[in-house]
Amino acid sequence: MQIKSLGFRKKAFSTLEIVIFIVVLATILSFFIPKFNSFLENSNLTKLKSDIALIKNGIQKDRAKRVLAQNFEYIKSLDSAQIDVENEKLFEYIFDFPSISTSTNISKNGYWAKISNNRYVFFTGKIKYEFALENGEFLCLNSKDLCEDLL
After folding, report:
1. Which of 65, 67, 111, 148 fits 102 for a cystine, CB–CB 3.0-4.6 Å?
2. Cα distance between residue 147 and residue 66, in whole Å
3. Are 129 and 119 in contact (CB under 8 A)?
């Protein structure tokens, strides 16, 4: 007994079709990847600006509490985190939910690292932003142009 063919046959992709698919995919990705990197950079800067506003607001809240208690000293520390250690709780004295740190060796983009008792650094893809707590103010230590972009 013979089985009749129904006209269907197995067909694989030809090498030319695969090459065309790869070229089209590479062309699309060549436009998408730079836009995606720019998007990530912008999201890190947005996070940094938000964190700075929260830190400054937290310092002002702490200052107001101290004044009401007739303590006119400036806040001297923002947290009890160890210096240059990953997964420490940063800004725990002024944030309800502390930020988790990275270290300068790992330097994860979009994360803070504590580099001394009152100095911090924020990592983005291209730039490392440095800040310090001095006389109750959270100050940007980078160039004037970079600092103005954050405000």
Report:
1. 111
2. 28
3. no
Single-letter amino acid code for the residue at 100: I
Tokens of 27: 């062309």
- Residues 140/147, Cβ–Cβ less than 8 Å: yes
Give the tens place of pLDDT for each residue, 62-109. 999 999 999 999 999 999 999 999 999 999 999 989 999 999 999 999
Separation CA 139–CA 131 (nearest Å)? 5
Euclidean distance between CA atoms 41 and 45, whole angstroms? 6
* Cβ neighbours for 125, distance < 8 A, ≥ 6 positions apart: 37, 40, 41, 44, 109
Amino acid at the residue 76: K
Angle CA 90–93–97, to nearest 5: 60
Structure tokens at 40: 């990530």
14: which DSSP letter? Answer: P
Question: How far does CA 119 lie from the centroid of its chain?
Answer: 17
92 burial via Cβ count (<10 Å: 0-12, 13-18, 19+): middle
pLDDT band at residue 151 using 50, 70 and 90 as cut-offs: confident
DSSP β-bridge partners for residue 113: 121
